[in-house]
Amino acid sequence: MILVVPQVYGRSNDTIVIQSTTSTRDSGFYDYILPIFKNKFSLDAYVVAVGTGLAIKNAMNCDADILITHAITLEHDFISKGFGVTRNNLMYNDFVLIGPQNNPAKISSSDSVTEAFIKIAKSQNTFISRADDSGTHISEKNIWNKTKLHSDKFTIEWYLESGQGMGQTLNIAIAKNAYTYTDRATWLKFKNKQNHRIIYQNDPLLVNQYGIITINPQRCPNINHKGAKTLHDWLISKDGQNYIAEFTLNNEQLFIPNYK
To answer: How far apart, in whole angstroms, are the C-alpha atoms of residue 99 and residue 227?
Structure first.
């Protein structure tokens, strides 16, 4: 069972609260994996799906038992401040640029994703940024930084900020016939594609790594650490990793497990 809740208090030991990215929710990952987990361990997990930055802030406020996010710098900072017990790689996929099928910025032939971003900026074709401090937004900003362009100075005539999750941002991009930056799994699951498609992909900068972190019970004594550790240990086990590998859509694998 999946329930999105803003804050959780007085939790029982048979429930686990996951602070998570929206991309794992929008891809259908939790609808797939959590019923399997419940069947094996008789534990319910509740998902709070927000951007990675907010998920980590919520965890610092003890509103989480476990984190599944995709911004490794923020994750390591969370650990270094003593809020997390351990961080492990869980799985990965990649980011892609999607846009109108006629591709007005002509980015498909770009030699790199940074070149593709530069072409969008120079052509001033509309680009929708999540602008929500999510892992996806952090990755997008990292690419803009590598272009030596400054996204904070872009004009709102073409660079628009949604402040929304991935699904909502995709809907805005479709409505405005615009480009946007998304994880592949959410795009594959997304039903309202209309005339949009993947325009640029397969660059080393586009790797989208997900981490899993258990919360420190010494910082947050009222959390369900035992349940969270059960979920953590199963997801990184051979059994859990195999189930992640088997999560597909139209015969395409959505996440590649990579716990080591």
So the answer is: 42
DSSP character string of 14-31: TEEEEEE-HHHHHTTHHH
Please provide the CATH number assigned to the domain covering 15-92+210-257.
Answer: 3.40.190.10
Which parts of the chain fold into alpha helices (H)?
Answer: 22-26, 29-41, 52-60, 72-80, 113-123, 135-146, 166-175, 184-189, 225-235, 238-245
Separation between Cα atoms, residue 61 and residue 46, nearest integer Å: 17
- Say how far apart CA 106 and CA 93 lie, in whole Å: 25
Q: How far apart are CA 161 and CA 182, in angstroms?
A: 14
For the entire predicted model, the pTM comes to: 0.89
Share of the chain above pLDDT 70, in %: 95
Cβ neighbours for 185, distance < 8 A, ≥ 6 positions apart: 23, 24, 26, 27, 29, 93, 249, 254, 255
Residues of the chain with CATH 3.40.190.10: 15-92+210-257, 93-206
Contact at 8 Å (CB) between 233 and 74?
no
* Stretch 95-119: mean pLDDT: 97
Q: Per CATH, which fold does 93-206 belong to?
A: D-Maltodextrin-Binding Protein; domain 2 (3.40.190)
| pLDDT tens digit sequence for 43-58 | 999 999 998 999 999 9
So what's the pLDDT on residue 151?
Answer: 77
